[in-house]
Amino acid sequence: MNNPIKVALCGLGTVGSAVFRLINDKSELFKRRFGAEIKIVAVSARDKCKERDLCLNDVAWFDDAIEMAEVSDANVVVELVGGSEGVALEVCQTALSTGKDIVTANKALLAVHGFDLAKLADEGSRSIGYEAAVAGGIPVIKALREGLVCNEVQRLYGILNGTSNFILTEMRNKGLDFETVLKDAQMLGYAEADPEFDINGVDAGHKLALLTALAFETKPDFSSVSVEGISNISELDIRFADELGYRIKLLGIARRGPEGTQQSVRPCMIPKELPMANVDGVFNAIAFQGDDTGPVLLEGRGAGAGPTASAVIADLSDLARGLRLPTFGVPIKKLKLGNPALEDTAVGRFYVRLMVLDRPGVFAEVAAILREQDVSMEAILQRTRAPGAPVPVVMTTHEVNQLAIKKAIDQFSSLDTVLEEPRIIKIENLGL
Ligand code: NAP
Ligand code: HSE
Fold first, then answer.
1. Which bound ligand lies closest to the C-alpha atom of 191?
2. What is the per-residue pLDDT across 259-306, written as a single tens digit (0 to 9) for each?
3. How far apart are CA 353 and CA 376, in angstroms?
4. Which-ligand-closest: CA of 110?
5. Ligand 2 centre from 198 Cα, in Å?
6. Is the CB of 87 under 6 A from ligand 1?
7. How much distance in Å is there from the Cα of 302 to the middle of ligand 2?
């Protein structure tokens, strides 16, 4: 049996408490499988008096998490506080600078400071485990860093935020409104401390930045991810998508091409029959196109206490087995700049919804703009009749230049008969 892995656990919230319980409840299984005991020696959270239903008698309590990272006799600090700055950052910097490994579920931290932290880790021959930071219980970091190591990945995409996928699914299946479903996601422990990050695509953007770095050997760079969330998606769009044969999913997509790496998070319509379209609820999925493996699709729960704690333990098992890999797959000096591509000007197909006054001549105005911008329509729908009142008009386009469709949208907005900001969603045809 190897020496025990001594853990200082920072944060005892949804994920931290689940990690604490797993380490206590499954100690025999872990000893058997890892060849070493995993032992929590110190913990820190904001409020010592909070009722947690955890037995903390045998562990040292620290009010100051940074002090714990420095002075406790742990050999690994597990950071489960969250946030890209402040205590989470200082805990990780302190742990690495004092010779400890770190394990974290904090994608916000790594998407912004991942390069500097990886540099610290490299210099001290320590490691950063972050399996829990991307897609909860899906072992996607291990898949890219180990299982798919032979492959040059040209493109990856996926559903990377459990909360927004849960919201879109419940809106579609139960006809529930956005706010009600968001509250459920918060109660179930899926949402971030600031749920805005889930809804506005930032959380998925953080995760995409990490996957891109690993897959393409580039510095993680959240600032070059173009991000749009789901707050503009209405039940009406979900219903029209269904009628047209699509599902709306918040997708993170990274492509590498001659002009650089393109990373985007945005709501997309994908054909209903694709496996990715049927990944529902809190589930996440990631698809890769490997040059040797061909397509690979991974699916599992993307948030919640159990799946995330399971991923934290996977990182601890690596340490118990003496496995320390470079944070982003290659030594830090070999990471390239992502060379972010400029605005996405590629051609694509689009869904456009206008709320227009139901009166003669409106279609002619819309058609004139489409002709002027050389946008070719595939289908147009107006289901309801309400003379003189607003009705939805829905169009899908053939392949069209993105700049042209954006110009057409601007022109639609300026028509007197268009009563709301037009809604536009890209129709993606990504394969898996
Ligand atoms: P959470 O429930 O809000 O827990 C945060 C914990 O951090 C709490 O125990 C809190 O203490 C503690 N804390 C806050 N400020 C602190 C400070 N200054 N010093 C020490 N402890 C402090 O958050 P969570 O959902 O467990 O998320 C933790 C991390 O996991 C985040 O990075 C999140 O993005 C990531 N993550 C979460 C999920 C999920 O499904 N929830 C999934 C994947 C990744 P008190 O308990 O005393 O308030
Ligand atoms: N808030 C995140 C989500 C947690 O909903 O996916 C998992 O990272």
1. 2
2. 788 899 999 999 999 999 999 999 999 999 999 999 999 999 999 999
3. 15
4. 1
5. 7
6. yes
7. 6
> Which residues are known to be catalytic?
207
On whether the pTM is more than 0.85, the answer is yes
Domain 345-427 CATH (choose: 3.30.70.260, 3.40.50.1970, 2.10.109.10, 3.40.50.720): 3.30.70.260
> Which residue's C-alpha comes closest to atom 1 of ligand 2?
191
Q: Point out the ligand nearest to the CA of residue 42.
A: 1
The Cα-based distances of 417 to 10, 283, 353, 369 in angstroms read 56, 41, 13, 13
Cα torsion through 79, 80, 82, 87, rounded to 10: -40
Class of domain 5-133: alpha beta
Q: What mean pLDDT is reported for the chain?
A: 93
Residues 57-78: pLDDT tens digits? Answer: 999 999 999 999 999 999 999 9
Check if 161 has its Cβ closer than 6 Å to any atom of ligand 2: yes
Euclidean distance between CA atoms 368 and 415, whole angstroms? 12
Q: How far is the CA of 258 from the centre of ligand 2 (A)?
A: 32
Q: Report, in angstroms and rounded to the nearest whole number, the Rg of the chain calculated over CA atoms.
A: 24
CATH 3.30.505.10 fits 143-301, yes or no: no
Atom of ligand 1 nearest to the CA of 81: 7
pLDDT digits (tens, 9 = 90+) for 82-91: 999 999 999 9
Q: Where are the domains of the chain?
A: 5-133, 143-301, 345-427
